[in-house]
Design brief:
With 528 residues, the protein is α/β, with parallel strands linked by helices. It has 18 helices and 16 strands.
Length: 528
């Protein structure tokens, strides 16, 4: 079985999506999730492009990835610089990643109009950049930008650009459909012609494996990626859920099961494939976007059946209207008239959380019902697994209350124009029969409430001193309701060893925040 390497660029290409902005902590969490998923390469960003990516690479050095290799992305050095003095190249080396991916121009039109250098100078930029980096970095990949457009416009020059990268020592040539306008039959034809060039032995191209990086502007990114693999590509670049600039990139959530299940390529383990839906929804939540119900393989509607003929057929033989078994990708069958399904997901989570409970207990069905009720209210537990674990523990009697809220009050005061508002929270809680009344200020009302709550509890539970609020997201759920809209708050907390996410939902943003804060504290206290 041929091995295909998966290269995820969600943290760079995906972050260029409209309405998506990842914090450094978001990027750290997604990196760990992708590593657990079994992705081979994770592109962390462009360290020379902005302070956020530079900070990510500094922090990422502490990550203990068990499977993936982290890649830094950058371009060929600027023609006005020497390669060893170029700030972009210096930033790539400072990232100290085991992989660097360099993008270079292969379309003569782009060389003249975008770079504004001679065609020969561009070839020298490609060669010198890769040769310089290859002496200092274990793996260097070359993203051949606009390769398919470049090949159609000037075949000879596009091939020279690839040869420059190979001569420089690149470990993989990645053919990019950067404008996303190439159709599958064109991808197949161009790769077939490229294979002929590679096979004749007169070109250095025959020595180097190649990959595919497809954009989705003509809705063909997944198809183009599959066609490329069928014609010899051994690396597929893409993003989770197809996030990316304009219409997005090839969606790895669809590419992976197509390769693994349909075509039998060795790209991911069967166990990791079952995490497909979980990873998709995790990234959607961190991106603060709505889940796409009709997303192939992982959407809520992907295996949902409503029509009477369909329902009757799938109850006898699911394959009558399902192209795969949904559990292979972590999804489940739904019959909409009775909304069956979900039990297997709960049982899997019980195992993931290592909870010592009976998976055959009737309480599992109770959790399924409660989960559906909560989701109907607007709760989502992807990215907030600590809240979900607490829900399971409460149902099975494994939870205990550490304090009772008596009440809280928040004051936000703006004293004069041009100054930031002041936020103060006062809270009363009862712990072990004792009343505790404290106040605290903060950077905004939620931070003030968090500070006041932990100030009240730390004398009883000193381990809370190590807990920090790392990230805070708000999502409006009821569009059109204006300021009366229901909101979902997602909070990420952490201590020296762990990070966890919690969630709250309410028409009142402070109440939703309080729910998530309490879950965060209770989760920490239950862990010890």
């Amino acid at each position: 079985m041929q091995k295909i390497e998966l290269y995820d660029t969600t943290l760079r290409d995906g972050a260029q999506s409209e309405d998506v902005s990842f914090s450094v902590e978001d990027k750290m969490r997604i990196t760990e999730k992708l590593d657990d998923f079994g992705i081979h390469y994770i592109e962390g960003g462009w360290p020379g492009a902005n302070p956020r990516d530079a900070e990510f690479f500094r922090k990422a050095k502490k990550l203990k990835l068990s499977y993936a290799r982290l890649a830094a992305f950058g371009s060929t050095y600027h023609a006005s610089n020497k390669v060893n003095d170029d700030p972009n190249i210096k930033a790539l080396l400072a990232a100290k990643t085991p992989v660097v991916t360099i993008v270079g121009k292969t379309w003569d039109f782009h060389v003249r109009e975008a770079l504004r250098v001679s065609l020969q100078t561009n070839l020298e930029l490609i060669y010198n950049t890769i040769a310089y980096l290859k002496k200092r970095v274990p793996q260097v990949f070359f993203d051949a930008e606009h390769f398919f457009d470049g090949y159609k416009a000037n075949q000879e020059y596009a091939l020279k650009a690839l040869e420059a990268a190979v001569s420089g020592g690149t470990d993989c040539l990645v053919l990019c459909d950067s404008n996303g306008g190439t159709l599958p039959h064109e991808v197949e034809r161009i790769i077939a012609e490229l294979k002929t060039v590679r096979a004749n032995g007169r070109s250095p191209l025959h020595q180097i494996p190649f990959g595919i990086h497809a954009h989705n502007d003509s809705e063909c990114a997944v198809a183009n990626s599959i066609i490329a693999v069928k014609n010899g590509a051994t690396q597929v670049q893409g993003t989770i859920n197809g996030l990316g600039e304009r219409c997005g990139n090839a969606n790895l959530i669809s590419v992976i099961p197509n390769l693994k299940i349909k075509l039998k390529y060795d790209c991911i383990t069967n166990d990791n494939l079952k995490k497909n839906k979980d990873v998709s929804r995790f990234v959607t939540e961190i991106s603060n976007l709505r889940h796409f119900k009709r997303q192939p393989y992982v959407g809520d509607s992907a295996f949902a059946h409503k029509g009477g003929i369909h329902v009757s057929a799938i109850q006898r033989h699911p394959e009558t209207y399902e192209h795969i078994r949904p559990d292979l990708v972590g999804n489940y069958q739904r019959v909409l008239v009775s909304d069956l399904g979900g039990r297997s997901n709960i049982i899997r989570k019980i195992k993931d959380f290592k909870l010592k409970v009976d998976p055959d207990s009737p309480k599992v069905a109770q959790i399924v019902k409660e989960l559906k009720d909560l989701e109907n209210q607007g709760f989502q537990f992807e990215g907030a697994e600590a809240s979900f674990e607490l829900l399971i523990k409460k149902t099975f009697g494994l939870h205990r209350k550490f304090f009772d809220l008596v009440g809280f009050r928040l004051i936000v005061e703006k004293r004069r124009e041009g100054e930031d508002p002041l936020s103060e929270a006062t809270i009363m809680v009862k712990v072990a029969g004792k009343m505790e009344h404290t106040a605290a200020t903060g950077h905004g009302p939620v931070n003030a409430l968090d500070n006041a709550l932990r100030k009240a509890l730390e004398k009883f539970y000193p381990q809370l001193r190590h807990v920090k609020l790392l990230d805070y997201k708000v999502r409006v759920l009821t569009a059109g309701a204006g300021t009366a809209a229901k909101v979902r708050v997602l909070i990420e907390s952490g201590d020296e060893a762990h990070k966890w996410g919690t969630v709250g939902v309410s028409e009142n943003i402070i109440e939703a925040s309080y729910q998530a804060l309490v879950d965060s504290i209770e989760y920490k206290l239950l862990r010890g």
